[in-house]
Specification:
- This protein is mainly α.
- It is built from eight helices and two strands; from the N terminus they run αααβαααβαα.
- The protein has one domain.
- It has helices at about 10-15, 20-35, 40-50, 65-80, 80-85, 95-100, 110-120, 130; strands spanning about 60, 105.
- Strands 1-2 form a two-stranded antiparallel sheet.
- It starts with 7 loop residues before the first helix and ends in an 8-residue tail after the last helix.
């Protein structure tokens, strides 16, 4: 068997590298903040708490002027995305898919949760790898 037939994930697992470890996920957070140029100390601290707690962790593409999107990311990091969506005022829920578009999953748990939210809210399927790519490039 050719040793190169293994995927990067399989090789990482074979040498004991965990792509979801705290240091890696915190680096993803820093990269997302740099990419979207939207440093927010409070939101960063809440995201770090989710990372340390090994819960789904998100960042946002939104800036401070988008209060709903900023509340969504903070609530999702404190509780769950499902609970955070329930906290959106009823008269704003028609735009839920647009708010989901602002979320940047920092770990696989968050990507899974976000994928499920799209299916529930918009009836659309979003692949986890597509969602995870938000932390390395802006949407076109």
């Amino acid at each position: 068997m050719n040793a190169y037939s293994r995927t990067a994930v399989e090789l990482a697992a074979a040498i004991g590298f965990d792509p979801e470890n705290i240091v890696v996920v915190r680096r993803r957070l820093a990269d997302a903040i740099d990419l979207y140029d939207n440093e927010d100390g409070l939101s960063r601290d809440i995201a770090v708490e989710a990372i340390i707690g090994k819960r789904p962790a998100f960042w946002t593409t939104a800036k401070y002027h988008s209060a709903i999107a900023c509340e969504l990311v903070n609530d999702a990091n404190r509780t769950s995305l499902e609970e955070a969506m329930e906290n959106i005022p009823a008269h704003r829920r028609a735009d839920m898919a647009r708010y989901l578009d602002t979320l940047v999953p920092l770990n696989r748990l968050a990507a899974n949760e976000l994928s499920e939210a799209y299916e529930t809210v918009a009836g659309t399927f979003r692949d986890c790898s597509e969602l995870e790519s938000r932390r390395i490039r802006r949407a076109a």
